[in-house]
């Protein structure tokens, strides 16, 4: 809701890593925001599949994590992602944070 209502982005929500991969088979988005902890296939495994795909390897990915251990966050940042955002996040600033990590201009509300 934050990315749509505050940021003005079109969002397609899925409920799992497999759901993400299925959605990417249908349509390539401008970016993917992945939760690290998801049912079945976690965020890093989903990222590996995205990067392995010939169509999807260049799609920018941002991780969302509830992780509080700095070493875990550093490990996520070392993966081929545009960035890592921590939960909880402020829904009013999330769109600007995503835009910043992707190098996009911030949308005006």
Give structural notes.
With 109 residues, the chain is an alpha/beta fold. The chain has helices spanning 2-6, 17-26, 43-52, 70-77, 94-102, and strands at 32-35, 61-65, 83-86. The protein has one domain (2-89): Rossmann fold, CATH 3.40.50. It is 39% helix and 12% strand. A 3-stranded parallel sheet has the order 1-2-3, with helices on both faces.
Tally the helices: what do you get?
A: 5
CATH architecture: 3-Layer(aba) Sandwich
**CATH H-level superfamily title:** Response regulator
Task: Report the end-to-end length measured between terminal Cα atoms.
Answer: 13 Å
Which sequence of SSEs, written as H and E, runs from N to C? HHEHEHEH
Largest sheet, in brief, is: 3 strands, parallel
Strand order of the largest sheet: 1-2-3
Which helices and strands appear, and what pairs or packs with what?
Layout: H1 2-6, H2 17-26, E1 32-35, H3 43-52, E2 61-65, H4 70-77, E3 83-86, H5 94-102
Parallel strand pairs: 1-2, 2-3
Concise summary:
It is built from five helices and three strands, in the order ααβαβαβα. With 109 residues, the chain is α/β, with parallel strands linked by helices.
């Amino acid at each position: 809701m934050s990315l749509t209502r505050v940021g003005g982005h079109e969002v397609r929500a899925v409920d799992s890593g497999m759901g993400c991969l299925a959605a990417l088979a249908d349509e390539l988005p401008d970016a993917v925001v992945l939760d690290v902890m998801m049912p079945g296939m976690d965020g890093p495994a989903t990222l590996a599949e995205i990067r392995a795909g010939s169509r999807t390897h260049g799609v920018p990915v941002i991780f969302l994590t509830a992780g509080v251990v700095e070493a875990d966050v550093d490990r996520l940042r070392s993966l081929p992602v545009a960035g890592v955002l921590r939960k909880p996040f402020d829904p009013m600033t999330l769109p600007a944070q995503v835009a910043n990590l992707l190098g996009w201009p911030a949308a005006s509300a």
